[in-house]
């Protein structure tokens, strides 16, 4: 049996370029891994089977569309294993369809767990390539820490960061579909007259002030630099998010933003005590289903228990 712990992410910058001919958008995606995470356990089994526990377990597909199952099959196919055998259990804490890359995290965790269970010793570079085939956010879940994702988010460069930042995540009732939020971003751009294609929208780049704030470990400077080009689209599809963002700001957050494609809202706090206070205020506000105080950055997917060699 092998257990892998894997983090959720928040995008401290999500710069979105125009829509490409292949339907994806070029990004300047600054990923930040937080301690809120899932655990994926791989045990020998027949075929690829799955179970999931946690508050959102009912929303997780347990068929071959689950990113953990897809990861197991992709790794087996890459190594030419004729009949992959694994039972995967997902202990899910990351909100589902919440803009925190929970499915991607489970895909990354399953790659690592199956690699260890099957004794394959796949090099990290190869795991990162397989991860990119599974989805744009999956490679970052292997890497963790803080990283800039270019292309559709899969071309990663680790970024320097100092100290620990304190975050609160307000979990919404029900998710938002990532493709629907990108489509809404395009629609809002068309509507405003700027256009939405790569000819219309400049290719985004990482904000130097944001990178300096991360390197300096300065939460006040990071708060001033946070940005998410998908936020307007997420709020357009779910207008009640404006109330959640306001509630966290009124409770003392240094800054509030939608996490990725949403609808989870992220709040940067000045320290751990402030984060606990903001989380309690958000839970009492009636503007979200629940709220979690956490911190980061933390490492990417890691084996936490494995059979004795
Ligand atoms: C927006 C972000 C920010 O990190 O994540 P979430 O906030 O949803 O977790 C990511 O770009 C999501 O990455 P991921 O969820 O892996 O997306 P994928 O499976 O690769 O793509 C799903 C769909 O999202 C859209 N998509 C995704 C990435 C990208 N750079 N441009 C896109 O337009 C496309 O419509 C694509 O068909
Ligand atoms: N292991 C998984 N956990 C959660 N969702 C999954 C998983 N595998 C596939 N999915 C599908 O991916 C969709 C997006 O979920 P998720 O990755 O949690 O959100 P987001 O893309 O907003 O970060 C879900 O609605 C679900 O249908």
Automatic annotation (TrEMBL):
Record's keyword annotation contains Transferase: yes
Top class in the EC scheme: transferase
Pathway assigned to this chain's UniProt record: Isoprenoid biosynthesis; isopentenyl diphosphate biosynthesis via DXP pathway; isopentenyl diphosphate from 1-deoxy-D-xylulose 5-phosphate: step 3/6
Domain GHMP kinase N-terminal: 66-145
Keywords: ATP-binding, Isoprene biosynthesis, Kinase, Nucleotide-binding, Transferase
Top-level division of the source organism's lineage: Bacteria
EC number: 2.7.1.148
UniProt name for this protein: 4-diphosphocytidyl-2-C-methyl-D-erythritol kinase
Organism per entry: Kitasatospora griseola (Streptomyces griseolosporeus)
């Amino acid at each position: 049996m092998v257990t892998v712990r894997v983090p959720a992410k928040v995008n401290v910058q999500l710069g979105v370029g125009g829509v490409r001919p292949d339907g994806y958008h070029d990004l300047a995606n600054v990923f930040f891994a937080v301690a809120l995470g899932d655990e994926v356990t791989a045990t020998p089994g027949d075929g690829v089977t799955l179970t999931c526990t946690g508050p959102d377990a009912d929303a997780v597909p347990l068929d071959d569309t689950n990113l953990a199952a897809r990861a197991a099959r992709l790794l087996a196919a890459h190594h030419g294993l004729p009949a992959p055998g694994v039972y995967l259990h997902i202990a899910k804490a990351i909100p589902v369809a919440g803009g925190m890359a929970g499915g991607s995290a489970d895909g990354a965790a399953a790659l690592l767990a199956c690699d260890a269970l099957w004794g394959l010793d796949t090099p990290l570079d190869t795991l990162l390539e397989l991860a990119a085939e599974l989805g744009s956010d999956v490679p970052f879940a292997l890497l963790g820490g803080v990283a800039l994702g270019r292309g559709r988010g899969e071309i990663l460069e680790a970024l320097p960061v100092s100290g620990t930042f304190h975050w609160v995540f307000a979990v919404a009732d029900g998710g938002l579909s990532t493709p629907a939020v990108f489509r809404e971003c395009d629609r809002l751009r068309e509507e405003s007259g700027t256009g939405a294609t790569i000819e219309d929208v400049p290719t985004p780049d990482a904000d130097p002030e944001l990178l300096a704030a991360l390197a300096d470990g300065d939460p006040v400077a990071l708060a001033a630099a946070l940005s998410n080009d998908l936020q307007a689209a997420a709020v357009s599809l779910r207008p009640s998010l404006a109330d959640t963002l306001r509630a966290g700001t009124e409770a003392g957050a240094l800054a509030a933003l939608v996490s990725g494609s949403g609808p989870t809202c992220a709040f940067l706090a000045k320290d751990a005590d402030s984060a606990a206070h903001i989380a309690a205020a958000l839970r009492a506000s009636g503007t979200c289903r629940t709220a979690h105080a956490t911190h980061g950055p933390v490492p990417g997917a890691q084996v936490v228990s494995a059979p004795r060699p």
